[in-house]
Design brief:
149 residues, alpha/beta, Nucleotidyltransferase, domain 5, five-stranded mixed sheet, 5 helices, globular
Amino acid sequence: MEAGRVLGVDFGDRRVGLAVSDESRTVAFPHDVLELEPRERNAAGKVGAVALRLGVSVIVVGVPYTMEGRLGEQAAVVLAFIRQLEDKLKGRVRVVGWDERLTSVQAERAMQEAGLSSRKQRGRLDKVAAALLLQAWLDHDRMQRGGDS
């Protein structure tokens, strides 16, 4: 089994939500939101730098699928981002694409239930969505390993 923490990435045009797991890969925690400039060309470099600073061994990037299970419109952009991230990291960190269907909707619903106004949600939504997709990946990974922790 791979050791070390995992970074979850919810990639967007304007913001990149980040979440990180604990060392045991049991729980995902919202971490940060990176603001991107219009037509940002170094998003992969910024995310890669965070990954190296945190010492993660895996990065899980949410890939937008449609409800029918096909790649969504934004998927080509995200897949290009994954390739750029792999190029930047040169094998030091494994990068994995993960189905992120409904994570933003779930994050928004959870924050509304917590009583956060839409203005307060804006800064947190992306990192909460990243935590939800990372938690789904962590749970799946644990099940693939036979449920051990």
